[in-house]
Structures are given as C-alpha cells and as structure tokens.
C-alpha cells in the first residue's frame, strides 16, 4: 500500500506568449459558448491553449492580474499562442494581439 505524501507540488513555468481574444460569435464559432472541455465560456476564466497544455492548467497573466483556466482549444492555437474568452466582440478586437508574460501552473503528481 502506498501512502500519499500530501498535496501535489505545483510547477510554474514563465514564458512570453502571443495572446489574442475571442468571443462566442466570432467567425467559425457556433455561438453556444461550450468549450472543447465541455464547460461554458466565462470571461475572466476561460482560455484556449495548445494541446500540450492540459485542460485544467492555471495560467496567470500578470499584465491583466487574472488567472485563467485552460478549458478550450482552437485550430490556430498552437506553439506559444493563447486565446482569452471575452463577452464583447469590440473588447476582443480592441485587445488585438499582445506579447505577454504568462505563468503556467500545472499540478505535478509523483
């Protein structure tokens, strides 16, 4: 029988990524607001990340002061790209494309 050694150790990776924004009504979206993980989109929480970053990973963006949860994917979201969900199309367009420092926090289990 194996005993647990307590809570998992978090691993935090800091890097600069290209960050964009999307809405439920962007071209190619169905307007329903269901992410690739099956959750509903939520501003200030939902972020799309490449498939090498697992669902549930926390991504903190210091410039925005917000921690997002990876719950979505996207065809153009590969490499060092992230896509924030926003309710307002005007706000998403105003956000544009930004190179931002991000802190990626995954839970590591041993």
UniProtKB/TrEMBL annotation:
CDD domains assigned: 3D_containing_proteins
GO terms for biological process, alphabetical: peptidoglycan turnover
InterPro entries with a match to the protein in the record: 3D_dom (IPR010611), 3D_YorM (IPR059180), Resuscitation_pf_RpfB (IPR051933), RlpA-like_sf (IPR036908)
Signal recorded as keyword: yes
Ranges that cross the membrane: none
Pfam families listed in its UniProt record: 3D
GO MF annotation, one: hydrolase activity, hydrolyzing O-glycosyl compounds
Annotated 3D domain residues: 46-104
Any single Gene Ontology cellular-component annotation: outer membrane
Keyword tags: Signal
Signal peptide: none
PANTHER family xrefs: CELL WALL-BINDING PROTEIN YOCH, RESUSCITATION-PROMOTING FACTOR RPFB
Identification of the protein by name: 3D domain-containing protein
């Amino acid at each position: 029988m194996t005993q647990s050694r307590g809570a998992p150790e978090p691993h935090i990776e800091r890097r600069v990524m290209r960050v964009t924004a999307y809405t439920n009504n962007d071209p190619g979206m169905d307007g329903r607001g269901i992410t690739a993980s099956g959750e509903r989109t939520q501003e200030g929480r939902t972020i799309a990340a490449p498939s090498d970053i697992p669902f549930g990973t926390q991504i903190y963006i210091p410039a925005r002061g917000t921690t997002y949860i990876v719950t979505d994917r996207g065809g153009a979201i590969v490499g060092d790209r992230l896509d924030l969900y926003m309710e307002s199309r005007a706000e998403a367009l105003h956000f544009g494309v930004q190179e931002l420092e991000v802190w990626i926090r995954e839970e590591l289990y041993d």
